[in-house]
Design brief:
Layout (H helix, E strand, L loop, with lengths): L5 H11 L18 H8 L5 E4 L2 E4 L5 H20 L5 E8 L1 H7 L13 H25 L3 E8 L3 H5 L17 H15 L2 E6 L6 H6 L4 E5 L8 H9 L3 E7 L25 H10 L2 H15 L4 H6 E5 L8 H25 L1
Parallel strand pairs: 3-4, 4-5, 5-6, 6-7, 7-8
Antiparallel strand pairs: 1-2
Helix pairs in contact: 1-3, 2-3, 4-5, 5-7, 11-13
Amino acid sequence: MPGGNPLETAQMVFDELPELPFLAELPGRGPGADMIGRAAALLVDIPVEITPGGWRIADHPGRDMRRAKSMLSSDLDAMEETLDGYQGPLKLQLAGPWTLAATIEQPHSLKVALADPGLVTDIAASLAEGARLHVAEVAKRVPGATLLVQLDEPSLPAVAHGGVPTPSGLSRVREVDEEVLRAKLREVLAATRAYTIVHCCASGYPFGIITGAGANAVSFDLSLLAHRDYDKLAETVEGGSGLFIGALSVAGLEGDSARPLTGDSDGERRGPRRRDEDAERTRLTPEGTANAIREVWQRIGLPPAACAEQVVITPACGLAGVSPDQARDALRWCREAARILPELMEELA
């Protein structure tokens, strides 16, 4: 999320998503508040530090880890205050083991940890323990919550297909066997003892790897779904997995495009390309977002009744790059689209 005030953000999230709040990340505060820094701060017995190139494994804990842990503690304090007495689902998210391994550098080296299989094993085990402790801490602070844990794995397709570059950029780190990918993911997912989700906003979503690792739900950018992915998506749905579908483009929130939430009453300000803008605005509504999911459901030929039971509508990716007002609009937009979706599926039935 954008901004730097944990309490204001926690309250805004709960105001807009009272039935599914989440512990927000606020990377605008700087290193340690970002996705990698937050997950790295949870690692047990693997200290990290910031370098000009990013995060690197360190010899001992230093101020970078203390800063990351301090910001996470502030986020947890804000969540606890905002959700006092809350009962219901609460989502947490942290970088997964493969994205960490593809991003964090080895100690005293520019090589990513991914290039050292033994170090990858250590990171996965450390993250599993850190995730377990993190979930226990949140459960203690919000005892009425049913926790959902999301692993963010944007680098997973690149890891699986040998697409992670070496420091020189002239070659790539060798691809990782699918069974190893599943095993390390499974280790972290199982450690949480919670309902688990794996999010990947890159193309080529690895449905088989993620469901094979035991994730309860998949989370992906709908716009990146290729024709070849539909059979895998259908298998995932038939297997009973939850679907967190990124149906609202983050890029679509820039400028004036979030205004369809308030209707189309200011047509006099449309400018010379009125017809093109009208066509775009027809699509950019919560109903259009819900309808995009209905169209996918029709294409994979599954019973309409299953859709509302298995689908959560989300932004396609994180909202840190938009304004606070646009982020609020995005959450409201997804909530409204989710209200409309069951009605559309009933019509389809």
